Amino acid sequence: MSTKNNPVHEEVTATEDVEKDLPEQETQEQEMTESDPLADAIERVQELEEQLAEAAKKEQDILLRSRAEIDNIRRRATQDVEKAHKFALEKFAKDLLESIDNLERALAVPTDEMAENVRAIIDGVELTLKGLLKTVENYGIKAVGEVGESFNPELHHAIKQEQVEGMDSNKITNVLQKGYTLNGRVIRPAMVMISA
């Protein structure tokens, strides 16, 4: 009988081959175990480098955010200073408006009722009013509220609404007290009557 076709012989040969391979595998495992400290060290160095790169990235992000916040604070401070300069005269302007109103009331007297000597006083009041209005205009104070203008609730305060022939609705028909703005900000709305 031939040993080549014998299944038992083939099994024994395969077992011997596996036993021969076992010492080689053990040797390779021992070599891997011996080289593991180096591989572990390399792996650890890579982990630390990744952590370092991540920390540097976070630090860069924090730095950029801090710079942006500082720029925002500077911009806000600059705007606050500009507003303080621009609107520092607001209280003074409000107090001054009463004098302007009184001068305008003095001039509201019809001219046909005036005596000649009163006319000289009226002319002086007119010149005073013009000079005062020019002075306050130089500082950014402007009058708002003229007859015929469209009603604007941001600039005008409607006291009464009335029917007026030939006038569109929401137009100013009468100005009871002029309004004023300081550099575009309303310091007193105009009291007006409007058409219905």
From TrEMBL:
A GO cellular component entry from the record: cytosol
MF (Gene Ontology): adenyl-nucleotide exchange factor activity; protein homodimerization activity; protein-folding chaperone binding; unfolded protein binding
A Pfam family that the UniProt record links to this protein: GrpE
Amino acid composition bias (Acidic residues), ranges on this chain: 13-34
Cell compartments where the protein resides: Cytoplasm
Main location group: cytoplasm
PANTHER family tied to this protein: GRPE PROTEIN, GRPE PROTEIN HOMOLOG, MITOCHONDRIAL
Name this protein carries in UniProt: Protein GrpE
Encoding gene per record: grpE
